[in-house]
Write a structure and sequence with these properties.
single chain, alpha/beta, six-stranded mixed sheet, three-stranded mixed sheet
Amino acid sequence: MKAGIVGLPNVGKSTLFNALTSSKGAQAANYPFCTIEPNEGIVPVPDPRLGRITKYIVPQKIIPSALTLVDIAGIVKGASVGEGLGNKFLSHIREVDAIIQVVRCFSDPDVVHVSGKVDPLMDMETIDIELMLADMQTLENALPRAERAAKGGDKEAKERVEGIKKSLAHLRTDQPLRKLTLDENETLAMSSFGLMTAKQILYVANVDENDLAGEGPLVMQVRAFAAKLGAEVVPVCAKLEAEIAELDEADRGEMLASAGITEPALAMLARAAYKALGFQSYFTAGEKEVRAWPVPVGSSAPKAAGVIHTDFERGFIRAEVYTLEDLEHYKAEKEIRAAGKLRLVGRDYIMQDGDICHFLFNV
C-alpha cells in the first residue's frame, strides 16, 4: 500500500510528510524544486479497536496496519510537458496506489505561493489539468501500438484499444479517469499504464491554527470541489502537527488538550488514506501479538490469509471468525467458542472490517 503526497510547491507537503513519519530532520527549503527524489516513510494506521481487543487478550506486542507514504516534489503548471522536471515527478506518481493532494488553505507572508496568491481552487485545478494531460499523452502514445497488436488478433490488445479510446474520450471532457467505469477486462488490459487520474484521491486542506476544524471559506471551497469527485477532505494544520510530532509521547496529550483536539489530525489522515486505498483491517489476536492486517475490501478469506503468508492462502482449509463485539460481551475467546459464536467459514467467505480470525491451513 503506497500513497503519494502531491501538491504545488510550498503548500506544506514536506512539513506534513515529516510530521506523519515523525521525521526530526531539517525541513525542506522554501524553494519550488527543493525535492527531486521522493522520500518514503512507513506510517502506522491508528486503530482504537486494537486497544479494545487488548483489554481481553493481553499480548507481548501490538502491531497496527501500516502504509507507505511518498513525498513527491511540487508539481507546477506545465509539468505534463516537462516544466520543473515534471516528467520525473509524474513518473513517481504513476508508481503509487493512491494520491494525497495537499491544498494550501493558510496565509503566511513568509512562505511564497508559487502563483503569487492563495487560491485552493486554482491549485486543485492546476494539479488536475497536469495529471489529465499527462494521462492523455500516455494513452495517445500507447494507442497505435495497441491497435497494431489488436490487428494481429491479440484479445488483450483489443480490450486495451477499447479501454484507451473510452479513457481518451472521457479525459477530453475534462474529467479525471476515476470518474470513468470500464469493464473488468478493459481495466486489467490497461493496468500497466499507471494512469494517475484513475487513482483514488484524498484531499488534505492545510489550514491555519485558528481553523483546525476546517470550517473557513478556503476549506469550504476544497470541500465543494472534492464532493463533485466523491473524495474526502481532511483538514490538517501541518505546522501544528509537525510541532506535536516532535514532542515526547507524554507531552503530546497536553499539547493536544491545549489545542482542543482529542488526537493528532495525522491519525485521521492515516485512516482516511487507508480507506482511499480501498483497504480494511482484520485482526489476529493471541499472547504473542495482537495485530491488524490490511486487506482490500471485498477480499475472500483465503486472500486475507495470504496477507500473513502465501502458504496460508495456498493451503487454506477454513477460518474461525468472531467479532470485537463478541469479545467484549463474552470477555474471552474460550467463552465465545462455548457460546457457539465462533463461526467456521470457508473459501467463499468475504472478509468484514474488524473480523478477528484464526486460519487453519495445510501445506
